C-alpha cells in the first residue's frame, strides 16, 4: 500500500515537473528574445561573430534546461564520446527518437547550426534563438542545402536529423537525401551520434504528458567519423547521394539493434 502511494506521488511529481520544464523552456526562449539578444546585437562584431555569440547563448541555455529536467527528477542521461564533438566544419548526423534530442545535442556543442521547420520562425518562444543563432529554414530545400554547405565550408558545425522529424516507434528509418547531399557537397567531417531513450517517451506517437512510470534515461553515443571517399566523386552525383543515404540508414538501423 505504501509503495503504491509512493509510486502515485512520484508519478504526479514527474508529471508536474515535466510540465514545469516545458513551460520554463518556452518562457526562457521568450526572455532570450526580449532581454538577452537585443543586448547582444549592440555588441561589436561582424555577422559571423554575432551568430557565434548567439549559438553559445543557446547552447548554454539548453544546458541549463537539461540540468533542470535532471534535477527535477524527470530524466537521467549519459554521454559517451563527447571529446569527438565541437570541431570546426563538423556535420553531426543523429537519429531522432524524442522531442528533446536537439536540445540535448546542442547543450553539449558550444557552437552549432541546425535546420529548423519554417513555421517555427513565427513562434514567439523560438524565434529569438532561431534567428540569433543563425539556424537554417527548411522552407526551400535547395536554398537550405546551399546554406548548410556554405556554413560547413566556412568552418561552422551543424546538427542534422536525416529523418527530418522524430522517429515513429516500431517503424523502420526513412532518411531523406538532403543530409547526404549536404555532407558530400561540403565534403564535411561527418560524425554519427546515436540517441536512445528508455523508457520510451516524448516520441512522435506520444503527447508530452504521457510520461513513463519512472524517469527516462537518455543516452548519447558519439561514433567515429564516417569516411566519404567511396561516395564523393561518383557520377552522377545523385547516385553518390543515394548510396550515402542508404549507408546512413543502415548504420543507424544497426545501432538501434545493439
From TrEMBL:
All copies of domain Phospholipid/glycerol acyltransferase, residue ranges: 90-198
TM spans (from-to): 12-40, 60-80
Keyword Transferase carried by entry: yes
Matches recorded under CDD domains: LPLAT_AGPAT-like
Keyword tags: Acyltransferase, Membrane, Transferase, Transmembrane, Transmembrane helix
SMART domains referenced in this protein's UniProt entry, alphabetically: PlsC
NAD recorded as keyword: no
GO BP of this protein: phosphatidic acid biosynthetic process
Pathway given in the UniProt record: Lipid metabolism
Gene Ontology MF: a single term: 1-acylglycerol-3-phosphate O-acyltransferase activity
Domain of life: Bacteria
Name of one Pfam family that matches: Acyltransferase
The protein, known as: 1-acyl-sn-glycerol-3-phosphate acyltransferase
Species this chain originates from: Methylobacter tundripaludum
Lineage: Bacteria, Pseudomonadati, Pseudomonadota, Gammaproteobacteria, Methylococcales
Amino acid at each position: 500500500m505504501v509503495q503504491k502511494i509512493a509510486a502515485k506521488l512520484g508519478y504526479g511529481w514527474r508529471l508536474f515537473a515535466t510540465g514545469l520544464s516545458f513551460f520554463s523552456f518556452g518562457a526562457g526562449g521568450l526572455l532570450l528574445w526580449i532581454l538577452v539578444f537585443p543586448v547582444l546585437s549592440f555588441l561589436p562584431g561582424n555577422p559571423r561573430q554575432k551568430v557565434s555569440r548567439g549559438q553559445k547563448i543557446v547552447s548554454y541555455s539548453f544546458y541549463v534546461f537539461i540540468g533542470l529536467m535532471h534535477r527535477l527528477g524527470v530524466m537521467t542521461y549519459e554521454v559517451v564520446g563527447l571529446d569527438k564533438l565541437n570541431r570546426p566544419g563538423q556535420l553531426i548526423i543523429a537519429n531522432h527518437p524524442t522531442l528533446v534530442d536537439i536540445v540535448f545535442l546542442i547543450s553539449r556543442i558550444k557552437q552549432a547550426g541546425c535546420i529548423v521547420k519554417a513555421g517555427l520562425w513565427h513562434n514567439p518562444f523560438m524565434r529569438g534563438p532561431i534567428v540569433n543563432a543563425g539556424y537554417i529554414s527548411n522552407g526551400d530545400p535547395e536554398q537550405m542545402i546551399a546554406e548548410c554547405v556554405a556554413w560547413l565550408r566556412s568552418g561552422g558545425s551543424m546538427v542534422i536529423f536525416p529523418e527530418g522529424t522524430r522517429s515513429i516507434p516500431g517503424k523502420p528509418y526513412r532518411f531523406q537525401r538532403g543530409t547526404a547531399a549536404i555532407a558530400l557537397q561540403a565534403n564535411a567531417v561527418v560524425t554519427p551520434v546515436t540517441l536512445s531513450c528508455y523508457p520510451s517517451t516524448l516520441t512522435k506517437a506520444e503527447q508530452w504528458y504521457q510520461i513513463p512510470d519512472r524517469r527516462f534515461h537518455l543516452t548519447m553515443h558519439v561514433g567515429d567519423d564516417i569516411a566519404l571517399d567511396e561516395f564523393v566523386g561518383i557520377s552522377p552525383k545523385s547516385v553518390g547521394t543515394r548510396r550515402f543515404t542508404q549507408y546512413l540508414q543502415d548504420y543507424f538501423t544497426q545501432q538501434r539493434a545493439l
